[in-house]
Every structure is written in structure tokens, then in C-alpha cells.
Amino acid sequence: MYESDGKNGIGLRIGKFIMIELDHTFKEALPIIEKIEKAGFEAYFVGGSVRDALLKKEINDVDIATSAFPAEIKQIFHKTIDVGIEHGTVMVLWGGDSYEITTFRTESAYQDFRRPDKVEFVRSLEEDLKRRDFTVNALAMDKNGHIMDYFEGQKDLNNRVIKAVGSPQERFHEDALRMMRAVRFVSQLGFTMETNTQKAIADHHALLGKISIERISVEFMKLMQGKSRSKGLELFIHTELYAYCPGLEQHKDKLEKFARFEGSLSTRSAAWTMLIHFLEIPTAEVTKFLKLWKCSNKEMHEVQLEVKTVRSRLTHPYTAVDLYQSGLTIALEVEHILEQMHFPANIELVVEQYENLPIKEKKDVQISGNEILAALKIKPGKWLGQLLEEIEMLIVTGQLANDSEAILSWVKNQSGIGDRSVN
User: Fold this and answer.
1) What confidence score (pLDDT) does residue 11 get?
2) 183 contacts 208 by C-beta, under 8 angstroms
3) How do residues 260-312 score in pLDDT, each as one tens digit?
4) Orientation of helix 320-340 relative to helix 347-355, angle to 10°
5) Is the pLDDT assigned to residue 218 strictly greater than 50?
6) Burial of 342 (0-12, 13-18, 19+ CB in 10 A)
7) If exposure means fewest CB atoms within 10 Å of the residue's CB, which of 175, 204, 361, 369 is most exposed?
8) What kind of fold does domain 364-420 have according to CATH?
9) Residue 266, exposed/middle/buried by CB under 10 A (0-12, 13-18, 19+)?
10) 137 backbone dihedrals φ, ψ, rounded to 5°
């Protein structure tokens, strides 16, 4: 018989198992599992891919767990890479793709709250799943689509609950980043958090201070882009995780205001931009704030420009200079942000205005600095860069034609240019 919960799709119940139909991502990985089984070992799909399959979400990649030890996997497959062999993970190259195969394992104490002191390989699937973070992630599926569920993960999926496997205090002491992952899953999945799990985060939130900013940043951005971001942020604030995130500890009230903003933030730059806007961080200090989060130089530049553009756009329509400096991609993203803020936006007009710009970037200017120097026989210097910037803005604003002769004529009429001539 078929069974449906009305939310998470339909599965075929067989005894105590649910059998789901494998999509193409799982099917492409089936030869890996079959080859391991043929060698006399167990192998299963595990974790997020199984959870997402039950939720009828798109599967992008799969993780495979096995009773075979790393050395045995390397004997079974000819092309492998030791990506984390000390923790039981071997990458198998197969059919143009790569798959991470991890041996069932148990873990000892975590002295640094992020890495186990010792990993022990085991042959038991249940022992392996017991060490995972949340019940909805402690699921396994065999090659036929049968779900192995030792910790009522399917029940929690049906009830839309994030709950730690076993003792939440133990799970968070093992890896304190799991507290951020918990609120991130609330944001992404729109689930609620089980009472004891939430209490354990509130009690042990200070452990997040043991985790690197790089790892926290990854989870924070996923939280910020979740479909239920407001729900996730409220927990993030209520459990006081925010106090151990750079630049946020003094901004609880502003974070709460941001949590009430329900607009969609589909990109990292949009997420950073709106956070910074609500935190009221001065535009000149945006880069300093993002450096605390270990953002790349490219991302810092893009976000600072986007923040500047949003704040400018909230006070007046785009000028030609505004559009030229922001570029079309950022300008359109800003218009989408304005829509989310219920501020008048006009995407069609922005596209039209951008297309009518005389030039779109510096390289479009029909003359170079060397050409100016050669034509006028003048000495180079710092003034030349300033002159080229002035030419660029005059062209953008329509005060000067983008023509080499017109530009040279304008340059010749500038006082002081002749004083730099070569004798």
C-alpha cells in the first residue's frame, strides 16, 4: 500500500521500512554500492540526501557509508584519493564523477569541541548513525530504496522537528558547530526545534566561541538564505548564539528587527547587504565588518558597492553615474531587494537606463592614457589617472562624446595640460 503524510510526499511501506523511488543522482551511484556489496560489505546512502529524498527535494550529491574499511575500499576500486582517510573517508573516481565513501565509525571524546580525539572504524550501521547530529540526518537507504531509521528520524521529518540524536548536550560538546547547524536547518526546512535540543543550545551557546569563524560563516550564510530565515534568526538570537558571531554581539535589538524582515534573500551578497543595512553599519566600515567574517576581497567589494547602492537608491532614483558604478547585475539585485522592502522598484526602467549608458565600463572609453601622452607629447604622472577618470564621468553623464578626436580636443583645452609637454 502507499502512504502519504500530506507534506513530505509518498512512500511505499514495506514492513517497518519505507521504500522510496530512487532519482537519477542515486541511480548513478548504484554501481558503487553494488561493487562494495559484491566484495562482501554493506553500503548505504546516508545523511542529507536521504532526508531530502523523503522530503521530495532535489538531490545534488550523495554520501555513502560502508562497513568496508578504507584499505578495503582502496582494494575494491582502482581510482581513489585519500581525502580524509584518517577519519575513514576515501574518494572514489567513477564514471566521470567522484564519490566520498566513509567507513562506519565511532568517535571518542572531543577535547576541542570540533574534532574527535580518536576515530574507531566499526562494521555496524547503527553505531555509525548514532554519532550523527540530528535524527533527520541519521537516516540510511539501501540500493533498493529501503530506509533504515534507528532514531525516529522519519517521525521527526513528518512532525517537522529538528532533534538531536541521543543527548543534545553530548552532540554539541562533540562539535559545537552543530548548534549553528540546528538553527540553519530550522531556517532552510521551516521546521521547529525540539525543546531539549533548543535548551541545550541556550545552555551551551558559549561553546561556539571554540569554533573557527570560517566554519561559522558557512552555516550563517545558509541560515540567512533559508526560506524560513525569520524563524531561524529568532532562535539564533533567543539561544544567544549571535553573541559569539563577529560584529553582532552588540546588536541584539537590530538583529531582532532584521528577523522580522521576511523578504527573500537569494544570494550571499543580498544577505550580507540587508544584514548590514539593518545593523546600520556605515558604508565606510562595511569592509571592516566583512573582514571579521573572513569574506573574500571580491565579496567585500561587491557587498560594499551593493550597500552603497541600496542606500543611495532609497533616497533618489538611479543617476547615470549610479548605474555605471554599480553595474547592471548589482542594480537589478538592489531593485529586487527594494521590492522585498516594499519600496517602489522598476526593473524595466533600470534595464532601459543601463542600456542607454554611453559606456558600460572603463575599457569602452575610445582613448587610452598612452594615446593622450603620444598625441600631446606630454609627461606622464599622477594627473593622468585623474584626467582619465574625469573623461570617463563626462562621457557617462553625456557631457563629452565617446570619440577620440572629441576627447583630445577637450583635453587640449584644459588649462595646465600644456605645462607638462616634453621639451
Assistant:
1) 42
2) no
3) 998 889 899 999 999 999 999 999 999 999 999 999 999 999 999 999 999 99
4) 160
5) yes
6) exposed
7) 361
8) Serum Albumin; Chain A, Domain 1 (1.10.246)
9) exposed
10) -105, -10
CATH classification number, 1-159, choose in 3.40.50.410, 3.40.50.150, 3.40.50.10320, 3.30.460.10: 3.30.460.10
End-to-end Cα distance, the chain: 96
Phi, psi (deg, nearest 5) at residue 147: -95, 130
What was the pLDDT predicted at 13? 40
pLDDT at 5 over 50: no
Which residues is 84 bridged to in the sheet? Answer: 89
The per-residue pLDDT for range 30-78, each reduced to its tens digit, is: 999 999 999 999 999 999 999 999 999 999 899 999 999 999 999 999 9
CB 177 within 8 A of CB 216: yes
Cell numbers 607629447 correspond to what residue?
A: 377
- Per-domain boundaries in the chain: 1-159, 364-420
Residues paired with 11 in a beta bridge: 3
Phi-psi region of 160 (alpha: psi -120 to 50; beta: other; left: phi over 0): left
